[in-house]
Amino acid sequence: MTWTTTNDDDRSRALMLELAGVSKRFGAAEVLRGIDLSAAAGATTVLIGPSGCGKSTVLRLMIGLIAPDAGVVRFDGRIVDARTVAEVRARSGYVIQDGGLFPHLDARANVVLMARHRGWPGEKIQRRVDELVQLTHFPGDALARYPVELSGGQRQRVSLMRALMLDPDVVLLDEPLGALDPLIRAELQADLRRIFRDLKKTVVLVTHDLSEAGRLGDLIVLLRDGAIVQRGTLAELARAPRETFVTDFINAQRSPLEGL
Amino acid sequence: MRNTSLLALIALLINSACSESPARAAAPTPVRLGSKAFTESVILGEIATALLRAQGIPTIHRRQLGGTTILFSALTAGEIDAYPDYTGTLTQEILRGTDQAALPAALAARGVAMTAPLGFEDSYALGMKSARATALGIARISDLASHPELRLAFSSEFMARADGWPALRARYQLPQRNVRGVDHEVAYRGLESGDADVVDLYTTDPEIPEHDLRVLEDDRHQFPSYAAVFLYRAELATRAPAALAALRLLQGRISTPAMIALNARAKRGKVPETSLAAKFVATTFPQSIERAPPPPGPGLGAGSPPWLGDLAQRTVEHLFLVAVSLFLAILVGLPLGIAAARRPILGRAILAVTGIFQTIPSLALLVFMIPLLGIGSAPAIVALFLYSLLPIVRNTHAGLRGVPPPLREVATALGLHARAALRLIELPLASPAILAGIKTAAVINVGTATLGALIGAGGYGQPILTGIRLDDTRLILEGALPAAALALLVERLFDLVEKLVVPRGLRLPG
After folding, report:
1. Which residue from A45, B35, B183, B465 has the fewest beta carbons nearer than 10 Å?
2. By C-alpha distance, which of A245, A255, A258, A181 is closest to A50?
3. Tens of pLDDT along B388-423?
4. How far apart are CA B404 and CA B389, in angstroms?
5. Cα distances (Å, whole numbers) of residue B376 to A48, B21, B310
6. Min distance A134 CA to chain B CA atoms (Å)
7. Residue B331 — pLDDT band, cuts 50, 70, 90?
8. How many Cβ atoms sit within 10 Å of the Cβ of residue B406?
């Protein structure tokens, strides 16, 4: 047992997150079929694919909300299980569509929830909040507002601040911009790109939007029916599609303006 | 372990709340009399109390408790030592199927004995205006058979009871076709206006002399005999022989006309039962009075009108019942609701059991409680507690189940453990539902607590009960109005609490 762990450490030094031979089924539906997947430290990995391809399930496995039926999930070289999951969560931030903000807490209370729970001194909390407000371009006076009083874009910024509050190594984002209108979406995409580049965190982002994947991802992983179809940059996927599905998926999302 | 200590705490609370003053323990144990929630029974209880006290025997009268079942349970449970009842009631309601001749033996098996009859019967009977009865030559029920044209107006209860009109008609082969079920008051009015000829009545009704009625003789003995007696715990003969001897003084000393007169003066003349009893004892037993009757109880606060003192006391009693039971229900219901939400199978069981409590009729629940907790506020509090559980458990369960799954997942993903997630996220999100459940329980409690008067728990039910038996609307309102006001007040209070407890973010228009 000891020597395997050492072996794992050696092998996955550059890999912050790793799924090895992971399968998952919910009732009769097989959501993941033995996939191998890794996210390099400091890079942004984008999981993309049609609805139901299993991309959100990958994120939920990575933060230990569900356990694999077969295979293992590793976080920084260690298997994610009941013993390690608390540390995994402490070192990860998690953002979902619509933000997942707690409606009974104002923006600030949402952001500082875990810091306060862990007994951070007020001064340290305030310093961190100031940093995050600057980083995410969130209007500081809106910190006292409740989620229902915030716009969709503001809610996502609060959610991002909450995910970054404890300065995690990994940030997991599940369709963070899915519910936003195009203008706000473009603005937030630009901000996310800048933040990810500046912070050099390991980021895994789930989306079904190809242009978002191309703009934000260092590596794109295309999934279909619980299996990986192809991985690479957007250019590699477009130039050397491994299957017709890759071309079809890319063509389906071409801008109507391209043909003009 | 935690459950045991919680139960112990509840038991302690109820005991300390309901035990009477310690001074009582030092004094010789008084004889405890009871009476039912109707005027004749209260008068008999007061007469016995006055007689015992006149002989220097310390006596407590738990007046105007509920019905036969409550009194008999209280007697066998040792909560009271004696109360007045009727032989027919015992063979019809308590010891069903027992012959009246076998009654003493059947009672003895339960540690209960009865005095000889007090001298009057309160039976079912038929009555007619004396003049009309004389004119038609009717003195007995069997005489009715030859007058098929007579119009009969009976109380709905008498019409419905198997031992009422159906049995009577069969027994006497009565031919009348014009038989109507009406309210008792309406029947008497019909008698006066000539729209009805025969009504059912009780043989000690004050209406008999008032309407100049002739009570028809039950010549075929259809109605069981309802001879008034005192029931007492058999051990009274050794524990308090003087008290028993005093009770026995009443044997054969209260005639039917005397009882009718007493009922009339209490119901029509609004003479307090205590004064009626004092006067009755003084005139009937002048030789047996050893000491002057003790002065009436301590006066109410000087300067304030008596009804205000009554109202204040009833309010305190009522609030006590509601507050203690609600507090206990929150203490128990909240964890039960949380457990129900956490474990679906256990949850179904919890909801089913609390639901069953809700379906037990309140009177039955109170009767169940007497052997366990006696009479007074303790059984009332436990009953109210059980009724309060369902809304609190159900709303806590529903509120927690209503927390959106993504938010629960986010709480977990952020690193909150189950307990912290419950405290910081789930309970605050469920707080509007939980508070609504507590509010429902509180408002229902205010109303249901009026039934506490049936087992001597006091509160606003006291004047309602007296008002009903004396047919006095003003008295009924004296209990019903404050109860309604209290219910509204409680509702407003919870609106305020909601502002304090429910987080602002949940009260904003979405």
Report:
1. B183
2. A245
3. 999 999 999 999 999 999 999 999 999 999 999 999
4. 25
5. 71, 14, 18
6. 22
7. very high
8. 15
What are the Cα distances from residue A59, in Å, to A54, B66, B103, B250?
A: 9, 66, 80, 88
End-to-end CA separation in angstroms for chain A: 61
Cβ proximity of A60 and A233 under 8 Å: no
Q: What is the DSSP string of B363-393?
A: HHHHHHHHHHH-SSHHHHHHHHHHHHHHHHH
Using a CB-CB cut-off of 8 Å, the residues of chain A touching B429 are 102-104
**Residue B285 CB neighbours (<10 A):** 18
Distance CA(A93)–CA(A163), nearest Å, equals 4
Tell me which residue in A94, A106, A113 faces B424 most closely, judged by beta carbons. A113
DSSP at B279: H
Residues 6+ positions from A221 with CB-CB distance below 8 Å: A37, A45, A46, A47, A48, A228, A230, A231
Rg (CA), chain A: 19
What DSSP string runs through B326-348?
HHHHHHHHHHHHHHHHH-HHHHH
| Mean pLDDT value of segment B18-33 | 62
Task: Quote the pLDDT of residue B243.
Answer: 94
Q: How far apart are CA B495 and CA B487, in angstroms?
A: 13
Question: CA A34, CA B445: separation in Å to the nearest integer?
Answer: 59
Q: CA triplet B510, A156, A232: central angle to 5 degrees?
A: 140
For the record, the structure tokens of B52 come out as 């015992």
Contact A114 B415 (CB under 8 A): yes
pLDDT for B290 equals 57
Residue B342 CA: distances (Å) to CA of A104, B82, B336, B338, B409: 21, 51, 10, 6, 15
Residue whose entry in the numeric block shows the structure tokens 């129900």: B340
How close A163 comes to chain B (CA, Å)? 8
pLDDT digits (tens, 9 = 90+) for B194-204: 889 999 998 99
3-state secondary structure (DSSP) of residue B201? strand
Give the pLDDT band of residue A255 (cuts 50, 70, 90): low
Closest of B203, B237, B258 to residue B47, by C-alpha: B258
Cβ atoms of B80 and B71 within 8 Å: the answer is yes
Angle between helices B39-54 and B461-470 (to 10 degrees): 110
Q: Give the residue on A whose Cα is nearest the Cα of B404.
A: A100
| Cα separations in angstroms, A134 against A113, A131, B72 | 19, 5, 79
Q: Is A41 on the interface with B (CB under 8 A)?
A: no
Which chain B residues contact residue A105 at CB under 8 A? 503, 505
* Strand pairing class (A44-48; A219-224): parallel
Cβ-defined contact of B504 to A148 (cutoff 8 Å): no
- Distance of alpha carbon A60 from the chain centroid: 10
Residues forming a β-bridge with A95: A173
Does A65 touch chain B if contact means CB atoms closer than 8 Å?
yes
Predicted confidence band at B448 (pLDDT cuts at 50, 70, 90)? very high
Three-state secondary structure call for residue B361: coil
Q: Would you say residue A4 has pLDDT above 70?
A: no
Residue B163 sits at φ, ψ, to 5 deg, of: -90, 10
Q: Please answer yes or no on whether A100 and B406 come within 8 Å at the CB atom.
A: yes
Return the structure tokens found at A161. Answer: 């601040």
What pLDDT is stored for residue B182 in this prediction?
A: 85
* CB of B504 less than 8 A from some CB of A: yes
Are B431 and B400 in contact, with CB atoms under 8 Å apart?
Answer: no
